[in-house]
Design brief:
- The protein starts with 6 loop residues before the first helix and ends in a 9-residue tail after the last helix.
- It contains 13 helices and 10 strands.
- A hairpin with a 2-residue loop joins strand 2 and strand 3.
- The radius of gyration is 21 Å and the shape is globular.
- It is an alpha+beta fold.
- Helix content is 54%, strand content 15%.
- The chain has 3 domains: 110 residues, Butyryl-Coa Dehydrogenase, subunit A, domain 1 (Orthogonal Bundle), CATH 1.10.540; 110 residues, Butyryl-CoA Dehydrogenase, subunit A, domain 2, CATH 2.40.110.10; 161 residues, Up-down Bundle (Butyryl-CoA Dehydrogenase, subunit A, domain 3).
- The longest helix is centred in the middle third of the chain and has 37 residues.
- The strands form 3 sheets. A 4-stranded mixed β-sheet has the order 1-4-5-8, sandwiched between helices.
């Protein structure tokens, strides 16, 4: 067991951190206020190989492993505490990987080079208005096959990147029922382009946080896509979605670690310099003890996160771990990371006092942004608990199993 970073990992972290702290961090408030990520930042991320970095080099990706992918996610979270850029990063890293693994050569050649160059957006569309956690029971989107095309009808909601995909171009990996009688074994995945598609109407929602990336939904009215946009095998879409969610959950853990550590650093700087009752705030046990708890919590979730990334690398590159191992590790990471990051940020806001309730400090952006991860992004907290219990006890103990 070795907890040291390799030289390559250290250089990679240093490169991403130097760029993110110099170029991204000073713009975070502007990104949050103007509700968009500047084009120059997108191009920089592309030049650094940070857009869908898990994608094959054949399509412009960097082919990084999951440990390296988490290092980048952590450093982007440290710089952008609002988590807008980290959301863009992790969505494309996780779902770009799924598209790279299972997409047809024609579809990948059409879209992935544009995604890695920052000229197109690649998103995920699973959630529907009737429910998110109950994917199988709540799904209403249907895809029917007609000769060499698929016809999709339905609505997706609470989807990241609606504006980006509608303006830049790109696709959303969209889950639809192709055999409504087969339960979770009757779903397929499709690459659906939103831009200039007359059969698609979009809507936007205003989130409370991570304002630099859009959220909304889209309705499909007889949307036709050819067979080349079927992702993987017919009726295997649910499994691809679960694989992608596990990847995204691990990256969420890394972004939460980075943002949480940035918050504590901000708080420690304040308590070491702020005077109260003739002493520095940091000299009071009422401040020191919560600091010790929050730092330890973040260190523990960092270990969970990088163990999960290591587990993914073992599965994908060495074939020594299984999807069950990854699902368990990813769910534990997602169960703890957003909560610990939020608690650290909330504690720091207390240290800041009245200024912590103003926009003089970035902490409020972090509180708003990280909350999305525990509310539902890539699965609610109770879904993580169900996954963990399922992997420990077996599928026969699932509460919804008939």
């Amino acid at each position: 067991m070795d907890f040291e970073w390799t030289e390559e990992q250290q250089i990679f972290r240093r490169t991403v951190r130097e760029y993110a702290q110099k170029k991204i961090k000073p713009l975070v408030r502007t990104i949050d206020t103007q509700k968009t990520i500047p084009h120059d930042i997108i191009k920089d991320l592309a030049n650094l190989g940070l857009l869908a970095p898990t994608v094959s080099k054949d399509y412009g990706g960097a082919e990084v492993d999951w440990t390296m992918a988490c290092i980048a996610a952590e450093e982007l979270g440290r710089a952008d505490i609002s988590l807008a850029i980290p959301v863009l990063y992790l969505v494309e890293a996780a779902w770009g990987h799924i598209f790279n693994c299972y997409g047809t050569p024609e579809a990948k050649k059409e879209y992935l080079p544009k995604v890695t160059k920052g000229e197109a957006f690649l998103g995920i569309a699973v959630t529907e208005p009737t429910g998110g956690s109950d994917i199988v029971g709540a799904a209403r989107t249907i895809a029917t096959h007609q000769k060499s095309t698929w016809n999709l009808n339905g609505e997706k909601l609470f989807i990241s990147g609606i504006t980006e995909s509608s303006t830049w171009g790109g696709i959303h990996l969209t889950l639809a029922k192709t055999d409504p009688t087969a339960g979770h074994k009757g779903f397929s995945f499709f690459g659906v382009p939103l831009k200039d598609n007359p059969q698609i109407s979009t809507t936007l929602l205003e989130d409370m946080g991570r304002m630099g990336i859009s959220t909304g939904g889209f309705t499909m009215d007889n949307v036709c896509v050819s067979d080349q946009y079927l992702i993987g095998e017919e009726n295997k879409g649910f499994y691809y979605a679960m694989e992608g969610f596990s990847a995204a959950r691990v990256l969420i853990g890394a972004t939460c670690v980075g943002a949480g550590e940035a918050a504590l650093e901000m708080g420690m700087d304040h308590i070491k310099n702020r005077d109260a009752f003739g002493r520095k705030l940091g000299s009071f046990e009422g401040i020191q003890f919560p600091l010790a708890e929050q730092y330890t919590n973040l260190e523990s979730v960092k270990l969970l996160t990088y163990k999960a990334a290591w587990t993914m690398d073992q599965m994908y590159h060495r074939k020594t771990k299984t999807h069950h191992d990854v699902a368990l590790a990813a769910a534990m990471t997602k169960l703890r990371a957003p909560i610990y990051a939020f608690e650290a940020m909330n504690e720091v806001a207390d240290w800041l006092g009245a200024t912590g309730y103003t926009k003089e400090y970035d902490i409020e952006m972090g509180i708003r942004g990280v909350r999305s991860y525990s509310i539902g992004a890539e699965g609610t907290m109770n879904i993580m608990r169900i996954i963990i219990a399922r992997e420990l006890l077996g599928k026969e103990f699932l509460p919804y199993r008939k």
